[in-house]
Amino acid sequence: MITSLRQMADTVRSSGRSHTIAVAWAQDPNTVGSLYRAVSEGFAEAIMIGRREQIIRTCLETGADPERFTIIEAGNEKTAAELAVSMTASGETDIVMKGLVGTDKFLRVVMDKDHGLLPPKAVMSYVCAIEIPAYHKLLFVTDTAVIPFPDLDQKVAMAGYAIAMAGKFGIPKPSVALIGASEKVSRHFPSTLDYSVMCKMAQRGQIPSCVMDGPVDLFLACDPNSVRIKGVDTPLAGDADILLFPSLEACNPFYKGLMLFGGGELAGMICGTSKPVVLMSRSESELSKYYCVALACLMAATKDKN
Amino acid sequence: MVLKHLSELKELLVDKPTRRLVLAAAQDHNSLTSALQAAHDGFIEPILVGDKEAVQNLAVQYNLDLSGVRIIHEPDTDMAVEIAVKMVRSNQADILMKGQVGTSSLLKAVLNKEWGLRSGSLLSHFALFEVEAYHKLIAVTDVAMNIAPNLQDKISIVNNSVECLNKLGIDMPKVAVLGAVEMVSETMQATLDAALLSKMNQRDQIKHCLIDGPLAFDNAISLESATHKGIRSEVAGDTDLLLMPDIEVGNVLYKSLVFFAHAGVAAVILGATAPIVLTSRSDSDQAKYYSILLAAAISKTE
């Protein structure tokens, strides 16, 4: 079982496999830095798409050897994104990564019906593996970035992605906490209604390979002491692996709080696409960015096996 | 406690104070006969409100014994109902029974805001069946009162029924929320409601029972069938109460149990401050009799 992000990266590094990453508009220092480490460690090859001159200049500024990258010239961020995505869709590359291109523009290309990476009717979401000193294991958190107000189907898909990711970390039956403000079911909180339905779906095997409960608050999900004090009967027992949030506005500040105040590091990626898509906030640390690349390689390896 | 036969209702009434049953618009052969029978067997004390002369004529015609029976003369049906309801409200009677009056008139009186029997809960129908093929009595709700209950209604219906079963000595009745399948599907509202009721039960928002659903009928009553489908459920195969998705399903099940499975049945209306016996002409004499006993068994004891 992988219990830390460092161990996750080590696993990827020692797998002996290398994945090819197409990077859209690749001239920013963070992107170059994180990829250079991955390339140097031998588990990734990067195809940097953008202004050749700028990419080379950034490499030299950050101490990266531009010779370790394949560089493809592109005139603007849109063509860079289109090229990166189409290379990945065609199988030329295994992973696509967003560089300095705007998130909206980038995702629009990813979601393009004809040339994108999103299968018809697939739900696109985001799962983060987060490591914080205050919790005894990794927390898989969704959705920090993509779906503002997930409906029932989307929540079921989100849970499925997080369960699959946890599975890749060697957690065969993760505990999934469906997070609310309390453990009570109330029509005033529509997500608690969806959560009840999901629990039954899990019980009936419609959401397989997990232990699921919700609504629960964060204490019941992650603190055994609270479970004892509150006397709530929950199979999570304060030992959740996965936290599913009712909205992006709840989840995004949660993960940022962990990063900013909790000393957290993360590895996250877009889920639901036919190939891993690496996309992260510009303000993420370089270490987190490196972990994101490693995570995409880990998940790409899953897809290879299939 | 497990009840296997409706006749065990008699045992529940032994050593308990005799319940007073007021029959509203008592000039009705069917209800009068069963009320007097239950009185004769010592389970209730009848109070007849209605047209005294008509009641006495019926007694002569059908050879019924009215000796010692209190009769309040009120020839007007609506007034008779009002008097009967008010007697229950003022604790002069413990059970209300419908006589020669339309169901809607009786319920209108029960729901009267000033002098009716509102308890704050929804009124619901509760039927208790004795079926040979099942190992204990099985309750079914709601087969006659609520047409298309929403989630909130279903919570009330379950609460009414569970309280009733608790009074019959079944402490943690197992409640199966019925669907066409045991899987949750967004296209079938009954399955979503079932999932919610299960979770609310798990969170102690619906107490004193164990709820699982959706369960298809076969999963609910047969452990073998549930196991075959791989369903893990403490309710499956040992259901005490079947919650119907709507009246159409409920009514058909009720009638098929009676007509095809020759089930014995007792039924009451729950949710008012006192149990209401509301039998119909097509019910067997035995069904009416056991309905009275059921009402007596669950009525307040002070």
Summarize this structure as a short list of keywords or feature phrases.
heterodimer, A: 306 residues, alpha/beta, Rossmann fold, Isopropylmalate Dehydrogenase, 2 domains, six-stranded mixed sheet, five-stranded parallel sheet, 11 strands, 18% strand, B: 302 residues, 11 helices
Shape of chain A: globular
Helix content of chain A: 40-55%
Strand content of chain A: 15-25%
Q: Got a strand count of chain B?
A: 11
Low-confidence stretches of chain A: none
Total of DSSP H or I helical runs spanning 4+ residues of chain B: 11
Radius of gyration of chain B: 19 Å
Q: Biggest sheet of chain A, open or closed, and with what strands and sense?
A: 6 strands, mixed
Task: Give a written overview of the molecule.
- The complex is a heterodimer of chains A (306) and B (302).
- Chain A is of the alpha/beta class.
- Chain A is built from eleven helices and eleven strands.
- In chain A, the strands form two sheets. Chain A has a six-stranded mixed β-sheet with strand order 8-7-9-6-5-10, sandwiched between helices. In chain A, strands 3-2-1-4-11 form a five-stranded parallel β-sheet, with helices on both faces.
- In chain A, helix 7 links the parallel strand 7 (175-179) and strand 8.
- Chain B has helices at 8-13, 29-40, 52-62, 77-89, 103-110, 151-167, 189-202, 217-221, 223-228, 247-259, 285-298, and strands at 19-24, 44-50, 70-73, 95-98, 124-130, 138-141, 174-178, 210-215, 241-243, 264-270, 276-277.
- In chain B, the strands form two sheets. In chain B, strands 8-7-9-6-5-10 form a six-stranded mixed β-sheet, with helices on both faces.
- The two termini of chain B are 23 Å apart.
- Classes of the chains: A alpha/beta (306), B alpha/beta (302).
- At the A-B interface, helix 7 of A face helix 7 of B.
